[in-house]
Amino acid sequence: MYRRYCNDCFPPFYLPNRQTPNTNMQNATPTTQGGSTAQNQIPAPMPMSPSDFEQAPGSPTNLDIQYTQGYLKTQIGKRVRISFLLGTNTFQDRTGTLLEVGISYVIIQDIDSNTRTLCDIYSIKFVTFYS
């Protein structure tokens, strides 16, 4: 079975079956009689959707509840208070309903103003969940 990995996430030596362009001109095919050169050509990559990718061995996944994103996804729809550390000693809180969780962000909706705020997940220090 052929496994497909995201080519942007891993260096070429880590990926199995990855073809890389041939930049060594010694391996190029000699000139034909018509005067044009034929080189090794790599077929264009097939368009892929995110569901086509398999996780590479040892890669963390954001769906596992032992990771912040995975656990927060189980709490979508709940009222939360999130404390962020800004700089070295400034804390700021945001309160609202947890709407979405991405790899590097969360979106909360303010209950009073009905506005949505996108928040950096790496600045989060504390999350309080309300029943």
UniProtKB/TrEMBL annotation:
Bias (Polar residues): 17-42
Chain residue ranges for the region called Disordered: 17-43
Protein name (record): Spore coat protein GerQ
Species assigned in the record: Clostridium neuense
